[in-house]
Amino acid sequence: MLKASGVKVADEVKQIFNAMKVVKSDDDEKERIRIVVLHIDVEIKVEKIYRQKDLEDVEDVYKFVKNLMLADQCRYFLYDCHFETKEGIKKEELLLLSGLEKLLELGGCLAEALLFQQQYHSLFQSTQQTGDSK
């Protein structure tokens, strides 16, 4: 379990992050993880996983993610974003999103969000430095 700034990251989160970051050519596209809902409850934990097959009928995945952000809950999202540039180039980016905009209006979990962002940065850097893709 990784730890920084007082927040632990569950091993499951690290494994999922690595699976999303490194896509293998023989992976089943329908089983590809596209969205992971995360929350902090002593440690950073996975709340729900959405795979490509779960989103086949979703017209706009980004709007779907935004609708998952509840005003009264502090949640974070790893989002495997697929998009096309103005030049017609298809791209994929792994994004970390939070529902902070809604929560800040209510005065909720700012310190928790900052700890999470620091921990996510540490996780990303440790996998970059070690080349850990398992």
Automatic annotation (TrEMBL):
Domain named ADF-H: residues: 6-96
Keyword presence, Transferase: no
Gene Ontology biological process: actin filament depolymerization
Residues making up the signal peptide according to the UniProt record: none
Pfam family, any one: Cofilin_ADF
InterPro entries noted in UniProt: ADF-H (IPR002108), ADF-H/Gelsolin-like_dom_sf (IPR029006), ADF/Cofilin (IPR017904)
The entry's keywords: Actin-binding
GO cellular component: actin cytoskeleton
UniProt-recorded Gene Ontology molecular function terms: actin binding
Keyword tRNA-binding appears in the UniProt entry: no
Family under the similarity heading: Belongs to the actin-binding proteins ADF family.
Protein name as catalogued: ADF-H domain-containing protein
Native source species: Dissostichus mawsoni
